[in-house]
Amino acid sequence: MDLQPVLNRIDADIDAATDRLLDLLRIPSISTDPAFAEDCQNAADWLVKDLTSLGIDAAKRETPGHPMVVGHIDGAGPHVLFYGHYDVQPVDPLELWDSPPFEPAIEDAGGVKLIRGRGASDDKGQLMTFVEACRAWKAEHGALPCKITFFFEGEEESGSPSLVPFMKDNAEELKSDIALICDTGLFQSKTPAIITTLRGLLGEELTIKAADKDLHSGMYGGLARNPIAVLSKIIAGLHDENGRVTVPGFYDGVPELTDEIKAQWEALNFDHGAFLGDVDLSEPAGEAGRTPLEKLWSQPTCEPNGILGGYTGDGFKTVLPAQASAKISFRLVGTQDPLKIRENFRAYVQSMLPSDCTVEFTGHGASKASAMSTNHPAFEQARAALSDEWPEAAAFAGCGGSIPIAGHFKTILGTDAMLIGFAKDDDQIHSPNEKYDVESFHKGIRSWARILHAMTKDA
């Protein structure tokens, strides 16, 4: 099938494609809040209807949580599975939005057209880049260029509790030659990137308890244990003077980069000064002796994400709190075992407890890191196709975030996953005023059309 008519169709129909995205963005499919359960159902129904209009055998598949959307269409050549998620993050704090988050509109920002609204970039806009590419193929050739399975999730932003059971129960149906995931972004907002490494994630919440009630700091200060002080010492001890994590066995399974990967990353010319400057910082933190990209992509982390204890309201209250708590997240690499790290972290905390103190733990997720082999021919085909579309040549890159489904495709389905996305660093995903520029949306559609052509032209 000829590619050029498909690209021409995409260019001619970009306004209609944008209008369809705006329709989907109007559905407040917030997965973590039960008040929006019906809206998640409505978003799934919208996608089923849209896929069906393209001749795809699509259906809403119920789970104990929000539904999956699964669609199939036959074709020659390889079997491709495309994954995206239709659920979105909550919108709080609402007062920081410049416009209602579920009343999306096109804004002109200095000549750049922006799609503003929750889910515009993460992940409805990116999900629709692939659907729109398929629409253009169907419009021009009456068929899609290969066999495709569409797999859309409704719980990605709330921990994906139904995902693994669904994949296991439907493994034979979901198996494919390659899985495509569009939930990442451009490198430094300009270079198309194929993500080959993702960090895993472990969450731990701990609560230190001492006295049976809050105490007067004048009557008890200096004599009674202070849970905030105990917790602070524990957190401060999680890193040594060189920035390395001190949890015993933490670095078991952490590999060193190969010379080939180092060379690829160095060639990206990452501007860490600009990267930090965008958030009003200047000096790289983290482990000494590591490059900024190593710290972001190939090294594990241990980060306090929140601390609570004592009086935190306006004014002042002189108390020794009865308890203090913290949330700690670990980003993992290589073959680090999150369950072993959880065990060792809890033992470390117990070893730091003085008398009269106890601790309670709550775990929040435990996923391993993912590494995608680039041996599959689709990786080079996609890199060449992206390089043809964008001013900058495409690159293989890492990602400091965690997208567990990439690993699930391999461990559950035996399928390699390729992560390609078109978000920009300043899209403000998960924050007020999320946006996605129309050019990225447009070029993302064209990119998937080129990738499908590259993967199937010799089939």
TrEMBL record:
Family annotation (InterPro entries): Cyt/Met_Dipeptidase (IPR051458), Peptidase_M20 (IPR002933), Peptidase_M20_dimer (IPR011650)
GO biological process, alphabetically ordered: proteolysis
Domain Peptidase M20 dimerisation: 197-356
Pfam families in UniProt: M20_dimer, Peptidase_M20
Keywords recorded for this protein, A-Z: Hydrolase, Metal-binding, Protease
SUPFAM superfamilies documented for this protein: Zn-dependent exopeptidases
GO molecular function: metal ion binding; peptidase activity
Protein name per the record: M20/M25/M40 family metallo-hydrolase
